[in-house]
Known about the structure:
Order of helices and strands: HHHHEHHE
Shape: elongated
Number of helices: 6
Largest sheet: 2 strands, parallel
Strand order of the largest sheet: 1-2
Strand content: 5-15%
Radius of gyration: 20 Å
Amino acid sequence: MKYLILFLPFLFLSLSCKKSTEDTFDELRKNASVFRSAIFCHENPSLLATRKDACDAVLQESIASIETILNRQLDLVMSKVIVPKQVGEEIELFLRIKTDLGIRYLEIWKQSVILE
């Protein structure tokens, strides 16, 4: 019985503790792609209050990555750029979520890239 009483508070704390959005964002920045981090910023507007500069940096890095891939296609003229499937899917999701960027890049992306 004594051990049960000691174990219950630990169990309660471990079940009720949840990562904050800031911690999740930091983890994404370390371990995930810039596109996933940018999507996370877009889906969590409260994060902009505390991490606006970091979210802006991730957004700019995402745009730069897309433009780099599309510029490679310009160098190839008649052929398409081959992009790993997972990266391509993350970019397409990012462009669908960020509609202002999707308007600018999504059609060009679909015409210029092959996912493998």
